[in-house]
Design a protein that fits this description.
Chains A, B: Pfam families: Na_H_Exchanger (PF00999). 2 copies of one chain form a homodimer. Chain A is mainly alpha-helical. The first copy, chain A, has a domain of 44 residues. Chain A has 28 helices and 3 strands. Chain A has a two-stranded antiparallel ribbon. The N and C termini of chain A lie far apart (93 Å). Chains A and B meet through α1, α2, β1, β2 and β3 of A and α1, α2, β1, β2 and β3 of B.
């Protein structure tokens, strides 16, 4: 027996083991193993009970949150958003766990120490001839080795950070993609892409530089307790640059906010989540060759940029590909259809991760493509089921993350709160956001026919909440001093923005008079002037060729292809497209608002079958050959209606006394107001 | 540096570490830690990619299964059940993983061995002054230490057994409870309880005794390679005594099988899952005081019995309590309602586990109670949502378990296939099932007015499939030789019963002429004669008092309580009960078949409000005071309809050309057939 490896602290446990081992050695081999089994089983049982109790705490926390959300909605209390509420409950439970509960140090989690010279992922331990396998859980700081027993409980309620990335984030991001729909998004596509890509990168570098200055200052006055490289600062910039779609979606749906502003904010926040996650992983990958000094080097920078482009486009391609491929034909079996839809979406995530791309980004684009194509192929029942399923998953995951965020402020043991860094971070986040919004808006306004007005810009500045993605990115790695300081600071940033900015959005909106002032150019036909030329080309291609091939909606290919391609077209168009025509109109009308415009909207589709000589239904408005600005306009318009209606009904069905006005009537009202 | 602990096998890895550590030691401390971080990150990333790829294999397996199920349903191929299909796919993938794929031994999973004298749950490893935490994964047999690198991949696709118990099994069991509904179940309650409790215990002991004989024989001829105690035999008896509700539900819904037979089989298989899990844990807990000889002792036996009763009644009480407590009033917010319903069901499981009861059992009774009470309180949208959600979870979990079962036959490394034990087990399982069904049926027939006919008995004998629960119980602990042998044998038993018995059920049914022969006493009014007195008392209490208090359905208390209790009744009855009356009729009619009998069924409910002088609707049939055999009969009858209809629509919506006949018309057909 070799006890040299034991530290002095473990003497007590050691004596127990000596006792146990001497006890064991006097029993025969068989009884020994039987005894060991029982001890192991008891241990496992105890640990399992503890795990169940821990999980139960979270479930009850969620239950409490749901009940309070209901109460708030019921009483129309809107100064605190539900995610902010979840955080408060998490905070309270965290305080209780940290200060009120003391777990007696029990014998089941005895710890042993042995001196080896490496920390492999798997460790084989030889216990009197038997081999036990151990897996690496993580590093423990020297100061914690002393009270490892006391911290057992706190560490138990600390989840593996990968849980957030692999289990909780995907449904949230997928749901965002699945509910991000057409008209106003595509109308503002250029601006959204600019804010999300250029803006996020600008914000990341601004914050990174400012924080580096801050870190230099701290180093000067001796407040820095560990390494903090420039790449760390950039990493911090990347993770706090991502704005959160959750609160935007909830608050802006509830209030009848201008649709363009909504599209800008929601579109930006969804896409910049994707940008931030790829950006941060590229920065981690930024490592000058054969050098550990973390200095700036052009080659590594370029490589990093290459990684960014590669990962992003790979994830994008994968997400779109899966979304396009998943066209289910199991219409008669909604259960199978829903299960397949769910599994395919999940496998996009896994496939991307396995390929080294970013699953979250892939899932986002998968959701967007599936909403565009696959949704049309689903049976009406499956359309409802998938919507409801992802809505539920999103709701649970989101509230869980926010309560966990609150909880972790007290239960996470390695917090590094540094006042200078925190103040610097708040300032940097503010300036980074400003450097994203105002200059970009100015540049965009040069090209836009309908300008992004200054109150819109202020609103976008104000509503840049940080949320689930920022938290997940920062908790993913808290191994070093720099990362720990970032994590603590990030938590405070998220708390502040969700509580103050989230809670104040309503006030800010009325203060900026956004609800009352109709923006220029919200006319329904305005897409014609607004949309960019490449988008129009893509739209026509999509409408005439992709949709007919991939879904059962849209005009049959026989109508859109030139007459010479007739046989090919008939071959590619599924017979179902003609057969199911009646049915399809129904299932598609589920997508759009039932406001009497349906026949108009589908005029260009239904007339098309005339070309095959099969049957003509509906009133031809302009024939298939139109495919045109009108069709585009109408389709996007309905997509938008859906977004407004679905969002309101699903996310915050609060205004039951005052149902959300259809966009049209709202616009009329706007017009009347501006006219009077 | 101390290298004595390294075994000779790890020399190669050792040299790597020496290299790495010497490399590290010449770098300064900061760079060292930075380097280490990068190595750790790379390691973690690699491991994460591998995990994603492994999970992807399972997802694709499930996708393939779904597509094939669809094909089978489409082509009306019914000789192989979908669970059997999932197993076959799992087997194929297992073969590929085992024999076709060779992972080159990579540097990321280097293994290290150190000699210590115990195997604690947590291990602290001191690597040049830094502490790393390791957690116990399990024991590795001596022969495997050599090829641990080769087996890395196989072990990666091996799930933690607790995943089955804590993640996959609960939704399956909950769904079984949630879809187990009234009429025929309660009509046959006595018989079902007898089969499930007495029968399973009898079967467990018969199998245990037979296997002990078998083990003795093996010991005599020297075929036993390790310990095998009598308690192990009993444990084996307990785990293989549980029949599986999955296949019964699927197959019997598809065919129009006699409802009583269906109720007997389904009720028994649902309840005996609960009995088996508690029984097996009691047997594990059976440990004569201060004795490791595993001999029989009366006190320990009694204690074990006490554990059984305690755990079972505790779980039962907890499940029922949660089910009763969850009455949601969030009707305006279906999303919140569904989320709450889901969380409460899950917290039942966790609460039971944390209390030391059995979560699966608690979840079963929670599901049954929620179907009985909470379901009536949900808004129509939430009723659909919860049904669909649990249906989907059940479908995914079930198919996952069955494919994993197939996979594990090849990827599990510690199989012990012993021909004598296997043959003995098959014989014992057969005899155990026979000893359950035939003697009990004989005894039950003495008391039953409508006998369980012999072809029913043969059918019950034949349809005793073993499935998910048996697998989960046997994979839960495969640490000892005995358990490994049990696990391997159990796998074969499950394969055989699912493929042969499951696939042959259709043939067996037509062979036993069960589909054609109408059983005695399927008259609708027969509940009067059949049901046991205590059930009638409970039913009246439930109908008159519990339902009005807990749900918004049923007669208001003002009508059912004596006149003197008027004020109390008015206080307890929610005003909603009167207000929502119209709406409630609608939401309840969703539960039952729309065959014109609805007004009749709710006659006794709607008339009741007359007592309050509020409004009278519907045609009074017998008044509230009836509460009686007729009301009971009618309500149960409709519950049964629901079961048939829901089941057919949800689980196997195959007969689209020949929609399932409502029970009535079927009965009329039976009558006509027997009359002619």
């Amino acid at each position: 027996m070799r006890h040299e490896g034991f530290t002095a602290i473990h003497k007590k446990m050691l004596s127990l083991f000596v006792l146990a081992s001497s006890l064991c050695s006097c029993l025969c081999r068989a009884e020994d193993s039987a005894m060991e089994n029982i001890v192991t089983e008891k241990k496992a049982e105890e640990s399992h009970r503890q795990d169940s109790a821990d999980l139960l705490v979270f479930i009850l926390l969620l239950t409490l949150t749901i009940l309070t959300i209901w109460l708030f909605k019921h009483r129309r209390f809107r100064f605190l958003h539900e995610t902010g509420l979840a955080m408060i409950y998490g905070l309270l439970v965290g305080v209780v766990l940290r200060y009120a509960i003391h777990v007696p140090s029990d014998m089941n989690n005895v710890t042993l120490s042995c001196n080896v010279n490496a920390s492999p992922a798997t460790l084989l331990v030889n216990v009197s001839g038997k081999f036990y396998e151990y897996t690496l859980k993580g590093e423990i700081s020297g100061s914690e080795v002393n009270d490892i027993q006391d911290n057992e409980m706190l560490r138990k309620v600390t989840f593996d950070p990968e849980v957030f990335f692999n289990i909780l984030l995907p449904p949230i991001i997928f749901h965002a993609g699945y509910s991000l729909k057409r008209r106003h998004f595509f109308r503002n596509l250029g601006s959204i892409l600019a804010y999300a890509f250029v803006g996020t990168v600008v914000s990341c570098f601004i914050i990174g530089l400012l924080m580096y200055g801050c870190v230099m200052l701290m180093k000067q006055i001796g407040q820095l307790g560990g390494d903090f490289f420039f790449t760390d600062c950039l990493f911090f910039g990347a993770i706090v640059s991502a704005t959160d779609p959750v609160t935007v979606l909830a608050i802006f749906n509830e209030l009848q906010v201008d649709a363009d502003l909504y599209a800008l904010l929601f579109g930006e926040s969804v896409l910049n989540d994707a940008v931030a996650v790829v950006l941060s992983s590229s920065i981690v990958g930024y490592q000058p060759e054969g050098d550990n000094s973390h200095t700036f080097e052009a080659m590594a920078m370029l490589k990093s940029f290459g990684i960014f482009l590669g990962v992003f486009s790979g994830s994008f391609a994968l997400g779109v590909a899966t979304g396009v491929v998943t066209f289910t034909k199991l219409r008669d079996f909604p259960l199978l259809e829903t299960a397949l839809f769910f599994l395919m979406s999940w496998s996009t995530f896994l496939l991307a991760e396995a390929c080294g791309f970013t699953g979250v980004v892939a899932v986002l684009f998968c959701g967007m493509t599936q909403a565009h194509y696959t949704f049309n192929n689903l049976s009406p029942e499956s359309q409802d089921r998938t919507k409801q399923l992802f809505e539920l998953l999103n709701f649970l995951a989101e509230n869980f993350i926010f309560s966990y965020m609150g909880l972790t402020l007290f239960t996470f043991k390695n917090h590094v709160f540094n006042p200078i860094f925190i103040v610097g971070a708040f300032l940097a986040v503010f300036l980074g956001r400003a450097a994203n919004i105002y200059p970009l808006s100015f540049l965009l306004n040069l090209g836009r026919k309908y300008k992004i007005s200054s109150n819109f810009q202020h609103m976008m500045m104000f509503a840049g909440l940080r949320g689930a993605m920022t938290f997940a990115l920062s908790i993913r790695d808290t191994a070093t001093y720099a990362r720990q300081m970032m994590f603590s600071t990030t938590l405070l940033v998220v708390f502040f923005t969700v509580w103050i900015c989230g809670g104040g959005t309503t006030q800010m909106l009325s203060c900026q008079k956004i609800r009352l002032i109709g923006p220029d150019g919200v006319e329904r036909r305005s897409t014609k002037q607004e949309s960019v030329w490449f988008f129009r080309i893509w739209y026509n291609f999509d409408h005439n060729y992709l949709k007919p091939i991939l879904t059962h909606s849209g005009p049959p290919l026989t109508a859109t292809l030139p007459a010479c391609c007739g046989p090919l077209a008939r071959c590619l168009t599924s017979p179902q497209a003609y057969e199911n025509e009646e049915q399809l109109k129904d299932s598609d009308s589920d997508l759009i608002l039932n406001d009497g415009d349906i026949t108009l909207a589908y005029g260009d589709i239904t007339v098309s079958t005339d070309a095959t000589g099969a049957h003509t239904s509906g009133t031809p408005v302009g024939g298939v050959a139109v495919n045109s600005d009108e069709a585009l306009d109408r389709e996007l318009a309905f997509g938008d209606h859906e977004l407004v209606i679905r969002g309101t009904r699903l996310v915050l069905p609060m205004d039951d006394s005052e149902p959300p006005l259809p966009l049209d009537s709202r616009r009329h009202r706007h017009k009347n107001e501006t006219m009077s």
